Amino acid sequence: MSLLDIKNLSLTIDDTPILKGMELSVAPGEVMGLVGESGSGKSMTALTVMQLLPYAARATGRVTFDGIDLLAATEDQMCALRGDDIGMVFQEPMTALNPVKTIGEQVAEGIRWHTKASRAEAEDRARKMLDRVGLPSAKFPMSRYPHELSGGQRQRVVIAIACALKPKLLIADEPTTALDVVLQAQILDLLRDLVAESRMGLLLISHDLAVVTEMADRITILRRGEVMETGDTARTLSEQLHPFTRQLAQASIHVPARSKPHGLETGRSLLQVEGVTRDYAGRRTSLFRRAPDIRAVDQVSLSMAPGQSLALVGRSGCGKSTLARMILALDRPSSGTIRFRGETITGKSEAELKPARRDMQVVFQDPYGSFDPRQKVEKLVAEPLHVLDKKPTRAERREMVAHALHEVGLDQRDMDKYPHEFSGGQRQRLSIARAIITRPKLVVADEPVSALDVSIRAQILDLFAELNQKLGIAYLFITHDLTVARAITDEVLVMHDGKIVERGKTSDVLDHPQSEAAKALVTAAPDLYRAIARRMREQG
Amino acid sequence: MTAYLLKRLAIAIATLILASMVVFAVLEVLPGDPARLMLGLNASADQVELLRNQMGLNAPLALRYLHWAGGLLSLDFGRSYTYSVPVIDLVRERLAVSLPLALIALALSTMIAIPVGLFSASRRGRAGDTISMGAAQLGVAVPNFWFALMLIYVFAVWLQLVPAGGFPGWSAGIWPALKSLLLPAVALALPQAAILARVTRSALIEVLNEDYIRTARAKGLPYRAVLWRHALRNAMIPVLTILGLQFAFLLAGTIIIENVFYLPGLGRLVFQAITQRDLIVVESVVMLLVAAVIAVNLLVDLSYAVVDPRLRTRQ
Amino acid sequence: MTLHIDIPEETFGTILAKAFRNTAFVAGFVITVLILAMAIVSYAWTPYDVTKLMISDKTQVPSLAHWFGTDHFGRDILSMVMVGARNSIAVALVAVGIGMGVGVPLGAFAAARGGLVDEALMRLNDLVFAFPALLSAIMITAIFGPGAVNAIIAIGIFNIPVFARVARAGALAIWPREFILAARAAGKSSTQISIEHVLPNIATLLLVQGTIQFALGILAEAGLSYLGLGAQPPMPSWGRMLFDAQTRMVVAPWMAIFPGMAIVVTVLGLNLLGDGIADILDPKSRRQR
Predict the structure, then answer these.
(1) Taking a C-beta distance cutoff of 8 angstroms, is the pair C223, C132 a contact?
(2) pTM of the model as a whole
(3) ipTM of the modeled complex
(4) Residues of C with CB below 8 A from B149's CB?
């Protein structure tokens, strides 16, 4: 018998259909992977099971957990189930914990509530649970507050809260999406062990096919609120019978066609970074004392040739984004020099930087945050034209914007729209149009596809590749995602603790990493085909 | 923690010093000779000169400031010209009216506002919420002195439950004295309570949208328990901010309300001193009120640190 | 504390459509327009001349001839309320103008520069906040003499730090956005960015604060003129009318009721308008419904 059984579940919020005839089941001890792109209704499925839906939501159908009809359950019944029989782990560890309560209190609270245990007993159990999730009380006393922990550590606390009473079912909604690959691997290992230990059912929700494949026994693929396919993970993904499954699988390993790597033959260098260091003042610990400075970037040197596509990979907090900002002259190095097209750009005034800015543009990660919502596309895409010596006329400007939009595959009529009229993928195209409008020599792209769904991400990677071929633009990709590095770059730099620890051809570094940091990244990175192969082997 | 506390303390002291300079300077730049202003046009040159000496007006500016500020520190505020008594005595006497009034009003407003805010937030969108927030909306719009007039009309003129104004003094007994402070306190408190209730509600609702509230619900805590254990403490930060600001409003409010009810408090003292050009009284009382506001704001800053552990470790 | 700003992504048309479905906005808008209309009409016509004393008509109860009754000089209260609206609105509006005109650039500048400039400006703000506004207004009007102009200056000065704070907090929430980084990468100066990107995005915040300060200005002006420090007779003002009413409460309570109601309705209208605007433009508040 199934532990959780969802039959013909339909959900509307404010009369907008979210789920249509959804079917899903989880057996005791089974890991069910729920996969879909953003907006497919994955999270709402989880919230329906928890009965924590927004007020305007209406659910019909049947959701049974352990014989209890959840859609008909009273709030009191649900309170008895939540946290005791059903635990839940959320996506955003930074905001999932109450900032004014200690981690001990927060773990013990659920234990006390459900078991009526004494404070001491509950604290004892909480301590054991925190110990179990990798936060030993010697190093992480229960009196710590959430803000004293890192993202990965906070996610461990959230897991401790969810698993404290050994629930029969654990729901994990994108539990690792906000974490870097190495932390992701650690958290997934932890979840796997906890589930195996007490034979919990796990409903793992993710957009990442590779993650789900590594974890799940069975998989359900959701698209726009409807189940496309459901079945054994290894078989479903190796056979790829359903066209949508095939589309998803192929998009997630997509490598754009690029005829020849650029620039390696020319000896001239486009960008030279020499011994760059960036220190941030340590925070004040008392009136007269400061903590020692934090060195975000430590003596980094690198060079790039024109037209070259280079990846800068590393874990979050390794200093890669700080380095990118210094290259873009948005931040000043504490020491060292950066030369662009042979000219030093460090320490220059904004006016002196104008010629360099013309040849250097940027694409950011968040397709939603990188446009001023109050301005029209024409103005937004034309913004870099500000650095031209001769201001273009209105007509010339519209001409240039139209051309740039055309190059990224958008219609020139789009220039009179506001950014909110575009989807995430289209916005990232706009972002690229803005970056190429001045015909730059270098584009720095900070995690340009990590906020996009896999199918969209494949298209954007294709666009990057095409523009590299056509316009000879050099790319510096900042990413923690090795598949992106593999798809689009010629060379890889691995950054760790502010230093560059390894450099080489992309395929060499990713297939035969030398440094510890690179090895850790490569082993932790989820890989769809490796995961499928392993599953097949295990199942014989 | 200590770094935060010391910084707040340093800022409070610096603000106080700057404020004293401003008060001193404003009265210094008064058009005309303060001594002549105080004595009126009929005073003789000798009289004016005498007063100038008495007030120390012939000394250089910086010295005069230091003398005055030093006096403030040792609670020597000088002598009132119109009352011919040391200002400190006047202040002490008037404080016995104003301080209880402000405290009763503050307590009343907090005791009404926080439960109403909690009630409203927990019943968001339902009838109880709509009614109490409608009342709060109306309360915010009512000027306290008009509200005071209406209260006088209903409770003093019509029902004759309390005196319409005046203050019998604490020597007349606790109850008669309190009775005459009751209406003024209500008049001061209710409009403030309306504001505070609205702030409490919106702070709670804001917090209730946070991710950690969902985490707490996922633990199995019922909505009410989440509200009390998780939301309330986080919502206290904006509430405390408003509470601090309201203290300043209450102090200013006492000036008008004491005039409405003919209460011999600090507010009435300073208002009369201004119209009578008794500058020494004005300076002293204004400084006292400003110091009280700064002290309360410091207290609010310190209570942030109690509520929010992030302030204890971070800058 | 950090301020979170959700920037709504919609066009003017959809906002307008939503505005007319929002009860608070519609109610506030109607009240505000009516009060404004009343003030404007008073220039051309009032039921009676407010400067003419008719002792024979003194303290008449509300009737068809005098809807709101008459005062102790026989003046028509309705006419006085109408003329008084001019004064209240003018004082509060100009005071908001002063506060916005000075406070917003200061706050935006502090946020853009950061560091010591920011710290100094904010400490200056603390200093002004340390003076209870009404007390200082009383001081200013007492020193420079009572009158509508001094009331405007007194109230306006205390609007400055309010707007500076709101503008700074709003701007600080906008500055870390990626679109600001993009503008910086395009070589725009911080002044250009403040004007092109920051101000339009905090405009609604300022609008909401504007209505609040407008309402507070009406209340403060009433308080000052009640104390005899605002507009001087014979120009009628709501606060002054209440002062005159106080001693005659027993015989003529309507003298206190109607001017007070005028203040309440005006302030209520403005607050509803502000609430309505905030409600319409803040997607978070919509989610709560």
Answers:
(1) no
(2) 0.84
(3) 0.84
(4) 242, 245-246, 249, 256, 260
